[in-house]
Design a protein that fits this description.
Elements (H helix, E strand, L loop, with lengths): L1 E3 L19 H18 L3 E8 L10 H13 L5 E11 L4 H12 L4 H6 L13 E10 L3 E8 L6 H9 L7 E7 L3 H4 L4 E7 L5 H15 L6 E7 L19 H6 L4 E2 L29 E6 L2 E8 L10 E7 L7 H7 L7
Parallel strand pairs: 1-2, 7-8
Antiparallel strand pairs: 2-4, 3-4, 5-6, 6-7, 8-10, 9-10, 11-12
Helix pairs in contact: 1-2
Amino acid sequence: MSLNMQFGAGPESKEGKFLLHIPPEEQDYNLNNIVDLIDEANPDMVYLQEVEFGSSRTGYINQAQEIVQRLAKKQEREPYHLETGTCLEFDEKRFRRMWELARYMYGEERSQWIFRKLDIDKQELPKEKIKIDFGNAILSRYPLEDKTNHFFTPPYSRLLMDINIIRRKDERKSLLTCKVNYHPEIAEKVPLFVYNTHLENKDEKNRKLQSEFLYGELGKRRNAHKILALDGNAEPLGADYDFESEEKDESLERLLRHPQMKYFPGIYPQPDKGPAEYFATFPSHQPSQILDTVLVSEYLEIVNYRVHPTRVSDHRAVITDIKISADLVKENLLKQMVSPLVENP
């Protein structure tokens, strides 16, 4: 399962209010809905985007750990293995005096021209000091190893970074990668790597650069199984789209055409019918855009692919059944190893 959970804020979009505190009872209700959805689907692996790890707006709760604990209690079984990767870290207390001045100017009508000049996407501000720590999480029934979390944009001046975060000119996206110990006998020969990421929303140029970086990362592990789950903030463009034209946002399409990866063909635009809206994930109240998807490498097979109708966020969840197919593995020795152990990872 792959889900952008909008930091437990529920199915209505919080754009313009994403800094405001979510009442505890509302967050508790929304997290329980996410837990119920995961419990119903009962996936072996869950990829979550926009998860909080201790932000002011959500009462400093580590939502990833909270979801794992609630699932273990509800299912009465061993908890999911968990790895997390921060995307965005912002703490107003770091530059206290500067933000005291900024808050004063933010509330003054006479200074609004400054925000327009700086192209700042004005948000409603809470009274308390703002702290944001959120990113991606991977939950797995199988042990997770060798975690890496790579920021698409390298770190730079913290003061400038904070200003760009407030301006929504740097969303601090990252790529979370883990190795999965799915079957020791097979994993020793052909490891399984899982990737979870969320490409930038506000800046198409940055999103393109992130897509190009991710394309390169996927090509580094040739003798391995790979699963990529992402909120791409871009849509499939179809097999006839010409990259040289650069007419549209190619961020997701570039990944769909990766020579080592495969996608579910139903997400492609249909001839004479337009977008395949049946697999749209955003906005959740009336999905019209295919922003979220799952890709697999050549020796894996997507045997089922669906978008869950339940609304627990502003995105809907994508659920896939993925099979290690012995018929797709060329090496005879590996076929002999895989055949008696084939399961849905």
